[in-house]
Amino acid sequence: MKLKSSNIFSPVNVLLIIVNIIVFNIISNNIFTRIDLTENRVYSLSNVTKEILQELPEQLTIKAYFTRDLPIPYNDIRPKVKGQLAEMQAHGKGNFRFEFYDPGDEENLKKEAERFRIEPMQVKVVKSDKVEFKLAYMGMVLIYEDRQEVIPTVQSLGNLEYEIVSKIIRITSAETQSIGFLEGHGEPALREEMSQLDQQLRKMYDLKTVNLTDRYTVPDDIDLLCVIGPKEDIPEKDRFAIDQFLMKGGKLLLAINKVKAELSQMKAERSPLRIDPWTQNYGFSFKDQLVMDKSAPTLPFQTQTRYGRQITLVHYPLFPELANFNREITALKALRQVRLYFPCAIDTSFATEMDSVDITPMFWSSEKSSIQSEPYDINPLTQRYKYVFDMANIPLGAVITGKFTSFWKDKSIPKDEDDNPITDEDIIPESPETRIVAIGDANFIHDQYIVPNLDNLTMMLNLVDWLVQDERLISIRSRQVSSRPIKEVTNATRRTVKYANLLIPPLLVIAFGLFRWRIRNSARKMSLRDFSYRNQGGKTL
Q1: Is 515 a domain residue?
Q2: What is the pLDDT of residues 436-495, one digit of tens each?
Q3: Which candidate, 397, 405, 378, places its Cα nearest to that of 319?
Q4: Whole domain around residue 319: which residue ranges?
Q5: What is the predicted pLDDT for the residue at 92?
Q6: pLDDT per position as a tens digit, 500-524
Q7: What pLDDT does residue 502 have?
């Protein structure tokens, strides 16, 4: 039986086709199928994101203000953001919706965007060999009940999922967790010298400086206290305040330089910090030694020669590049490479005598390491031949967990300048279950030392999330890790690969030529035999 074309366009069939198209569109709008072959599935929503979207208690609305028809490299941002939000909406179970606007020449939309603190940015447009500048909107606002969170500008798509999800968690949480940064002892200023860390942490947490000059306790609303790079000794009353903060269950992150190094002056000396007895009470200490590592970058240094000053590339082992991470710690699971700057080793032996705490190294130096004790030599041209890299796996970071005993247990409370106890409260002798992270370097998170494609900033952000026990964000942020260090090989392997690359390609060409020559030679001989056979056959006939 033949199907007539007129039957296809019958009213019933047309109606069925329309219904099928509508049903297909409804289904495709709520179900996404995507093949993502990237290592960390960076182009797919993580399971954590899907869970957060499905658990939204009330409706959350995103208003996105994006200008159309932008030039390269901004032209693909708008459609990809829209696609990302559409995929999120499909998992939001009706409580996630978004609206897209192009302010263009509409003054009402421009005023609305600016009311949400979304300011336009200038982009360069080339038309008819002329360079013009155009104002473009590329921001969004999240609205939940009576609260708002703003992403003023979306210039990178690599971390968009993390940006949105961190804002969702912040806007839907009843309380925002606070992170304190100790100051008053020469610590680097958070907004000025660690601005990248400051910018990223403020998306999720309230950041506060903690100055103990005129007070004797860490504020009660601090969930995590960060002590990063003090250049002066921490007085007893400040250590007492930190100790009692820990005894109340607070989390502590210590990033310490035990050697004060000035690369511009090629000078290093022991830090004035005298905190060893204090930290040993918690199960660890920072050694007064510089760790050196064969796994390190080659850097340009200015040298003086008889022909004047010139730039020389030198392998600098005092900037070790770490790839040995404890993958059992969630915060370090996806890291690839972190560079430290004049790090010191961490002595973990003190915890072995303690029953109530456990100490776990977080990362180590490579198999070819060394240490440098006082007097220190950081000049790359004088120290590079002095040391034998015969040590391995020196711990440079550690996490200590458990119930800590106060350093001031069975001791007197520190006294003020008038010889009076600094507090009337009783000493808390033991902490509940809590955590300390110790890192033998404070330079790794400074703006001047952060290098693109290394994971220094990611590691610090992950450790903060992990310490305050909001581990959900780690799995999203860590998918964007981009460093791919080459595995260290022996000199023999390196020479083998080198000569193989030099010899194998021409040998393959020669072998192919010989193969073709043999085939053509055989074919010619066969043709000659056939020709000779036919000629002989003709004579016989």
Answers
A1: no
A2: 999 999 999 999 999 888 999 999 999 998 998 766 777 676 555 455 555 666 667 777
A3: 378
A4: 177-480
A5: 86
A6: 888 888 888 898 888 888 888 887 7
A7: 84
Whether residue 144 is found in the same domain as residue 198:
no
Q: Which contiguous run of DSSP H or E holds residue 502?
A: helix 491-540
Pair 161, 46: CB distance under 8 Å: yes
Average pLDDT over residues 121-141: 80
Cis peptide before 73 (omega within 30 of 0): yes
Measure CA 373 to chain center: 32
Q: What is the CA angle 15-16-20, rounded to 5?
A: 120
**pLDDT reported for residue 385:** 62
Count of domains forming the chain: 3
φ, ψ of residue 218 in degrees (nearest 5): -75, 135
The full length of the chain comes to: 541
> 25 pLDDT exceeds 80?
no
Write out the two tokens for 341: 């700057």
Omega before residue 375 within 30° of 0, cis: yes
CA-based nearest residue to 60, from 70, 52, 69: 52
Are 7 and 37 in the same domain?
no
Full-model pTM: 0.73
Per the domain annotation, does 463 fall within a domain? yes
Task: Quickly count: other Cβ atoms within 10 Å of residue 379's Cβ.
Answer: 14
Task: Of 182, 199, 203, give the one whose Cα is nearest residue 191.
Answer: 199
Pairing relationship of beta strands 224-228 and 251-255 according to DSSP bridges? parallel
**Are 364 and 460 part of one and the same domain?**
yes
526/511 Cα distance (integer angstroms): 22
Q: Which residues fall within 8 angstroms of residue 333, CB to CB, at 6 or more apart?
A: 325, 327, 474, 478
Amino acid 162: pLDDT: 82
Whether residues 21 and 51 share a domain: the answer is: no
Same domain, 232 and 371: yes
Segment among 87-101, 161-175, 232-246 with least mean pLDDT: 161-175
**What pLDDT is recorded for position 210?**
95
pLDDT over threshold 70, residue 170:
yes
Contacts for 292 with CB less than 8 Å, ≥ 6 apart: 317, 318, 320, 369, 370, 371, 372, 387, 389
Maximal CA-CA distance, the chain: 135
Helix (H, G, I), strand (E, B) or coil at 211: strand
The one-letter code for the residue type at 362 is M
Q: Cα separation of 343 and 329, whole Å? A: 21
